[in-house]
Specification:
The protein is of the alpha/beta class and 178 residues long. Helix content is 28%, strand content 24%.
Length: 178
């Protein structure tokens, strides 16, 4: 089994083998599977993410989900180790934030009990739903604060899936990985 830093290096190398257009095409398959997921389809309030260029592309998903009338929540980094959720109402709400991620403006969303589904990116996932992030721990710290009823969906490209990745007690596992 690889350690976490070695896995991140492997995934970065694999991502580098694809051009932007190829990653966008691979994203379509992942997004279509996500849209077909019963939990996602039935959700009224969804935590999504604004994608980085090397992640499953969520730009069209955000627009489509908004048109469906769902409430969309996006993370906003608020400090060296913290993030919060804010409601996404369209691209006009977004501005460049930490790590050059497009983040929502507006007021923080704190009624976590209303969240039905959380869609979470990662560097790697395993068959048990364990997630490897980029190493800062933002998502694990944040997800540990959420109610347990929230269905957690990890999204990644197939080349980011491993049989086993190392997990610590503070890591939050996904209910499913697409």
């Amino acid at each position: 089994m690889h350690d976490k830093s070695e896995l991140r290096k492997i995934v970065r190398q694999r991502k580098g083998e694809f051009c932007k257009k190829q990653l966008e095409e691979l994203s379509l398959d992942v997004v279509n599977k996500l849209k077909a997921n019963t939990h996602f389809r039935n959700a009224q309030t969804v935590m999504l993410y604004s994608s980085l260029p090397d992640e499953v592309d969520t730009r069209q998903l955000l627009k489509d989900t908004l048109i469906e009338g769902k409430t969309i929540l996006l993370p906003k980094v608020t400090g060296e180790t913290t993030m919060e959720l804010r409601t996404y109402r369209g691209d006009a709400d977004l501005s460049i934030g930490y790590f050059d991620i497009m983040e929502p403006s507006g007021l923080p969303f704190t009624d976590y009990d209303k969240i039905d589904v959380a869609v979470i990116p990662g560097m790697a996932f395993d068959q048990r739903g364990n997630r490897l992030g980029r190493g800062k721990g933002y998502y694990d710290r944040f997800l540990s604060k959420l109610p347990t009823h929230i269905y957690k969906i990890g999204v990644c490209f197939d080349f980011q899936k491993f049989e086993i990745i190392p997990a610590s007690p503070t890591d939050v596992a996904m209910d499913i990985v697409i």
